[in-house]
Amino acid sequence: MEKTSKYGLLQLTLYFLKLGSIGFGGPVALVGYMHKDLVEDRKWITEEEYKQGLALAQLAPGPLAAQLGIYLGFVHYRFLGATLAGFAFILPSFIMVVLLGIIYKLYGGLTWIQAVFYGVGASVVGIIALSSYKLTLKSIGKINLESLKSKWLLWMFFISAAIVTFITETEQVLLFIIAGLLYMIFKAPPKWWSFKTTNFLVLFQFGFLNSEESTLFKLAVFFAKAGAFVFGSGLAIVPFLHSGVVAENHWLTEQQFLDSVAVAMITPGPVVITVGFIGYLVNEFSGASIAALATFLPCYLFTIILAPYFNKIADNNSVKAFVEGITATVIGALVGSVLVISSRSIIDIPTALIAVLSILVLIYFKKIQEPYIILISGIIGIFIKLI
Predict the structure, then answer these.
(1) What is the pLDDT confidence band of residue 122, given thresholds at 50, 70 and 90?
(2) Which of 53, 98, 239, 355 could form a disulfide with 337 if both were Cys (CB 3.0 to 4.6 A apart)?
(3) How far apart are CA 330 and CA 195, in angstroms?
(4) Rounded to whole angstroms, how far apart are CA atoms 249 and 218?
């Protein structure tokens, strides 16, 4: 039964369509817009409902902003509201990245396009590097002796994931699951825990890894796994995508992958929408659609399944510990991935300077957002290469 609301489904859909069209700034900015617009200004959502949605979005896998949007749609209009809110939020940026994918495929070989992405790629490396540092501080803690002592197991997961990702240049979902389970057993073991559960998870993982099917099926399976292991920030998906798209399946080159991340950052909406651009480069519109649907489906399902049981989930220490363990490992993998990408993308002094300057601008000029830095870096790339 629907709760009494001060707005209709059409108003809700149009709001998220607008936010998906003009909402720049990444997950933190997007969840901030939702609070200001829906809680403070329009008063469609109560403060308590918003906080519950934000807590669930942080606990469950999925890109933070998209998951919160889906939850807020669910609050008063349940399944239909969640579906329309999520679809409307993602659709504008999906259309934009597909259009950019068409242009990229048609004109990517032109000298000036290559010059633009020469600067853009270096800037993206700097942005991801700084983001991984901030995510480390937020999710594990400050890098000091006290934190290393009190959260030694999380730091061990973090460092191990960074080393494994850097050395192997691949990323295994099984590593995330094991870390989450180990931390849950260590900190707050649930009553239902047994080795049978572990065996099931291992078999589940290998069942996915060994699938040999068509390209579209591989895309669907790969991006569904990616969507199921994004916690908090869309950038957390980068190491998973890099290892699968570049290293394992060879769908894209290193430069094409960096260009894909850049495209997601200069378009509004969730950063995870980079999967649409990647999917288009791999298999045109069908690839883009499959990649986007598979990535956001886990986030959507987690929300509509878990939302009715929010209070039990939010207070469950075992769930919190599981998420903490996975998050520390994912961020460690992000750091390892940054090192891999940097070693191949920072190819000369100009690219190194662009990466460092991007970091410094973000640190000291907080009002300047990533899309502007990327665009300026593209212009710098043209000057360096063509003038």
Answers:
(1) confident
(2) 239
(3) 24
(4) 9
